[in-house]
Amino acid sequence: MDSNEFQVISITRKELVAAGEQIKLEGELAELCREAGFTTMMFFTKAAWLTAIEVREGESCDTRGRLWDVLQLLLLKIRGGAGDTSRIEFDVQVARAGGRNEMVGLVAEIGPADIDDPTSAITIMTPEDE
To answer: 5-44 burial, b if ≥16 CB within 10 A, otherwise e?
Structure first.
């Protein structure tokens, strides 16, 4: 390939979910999103889920509680006039084992659910996932 050429690689969200690189919130977690006020499909990248939501050994919180916190912080940012509401950066404080707290930076983007599905979806990711 010539140094001035580039190759476009396309991957669908369905493929990312199947590969475990994105998590689609379904069932009880999708219901929690609706309770929080979100009517769109919600996805997390694997890195965002592992960093901000998944509960590690020795931590005294739960997945639902952490997800609720992330959703509420995102809603506050949206309602606060975050400017470009197609992409919002926000931080969440995550309680870790031993009473430590970790500030985690997240990004939420709204866009089509997939290449062949124009339905709106929100993807929450780490800044490194972009």
So the answer is: eeeeeeeebeebeeeeebbbbeeebeebbeeeebeebbbb
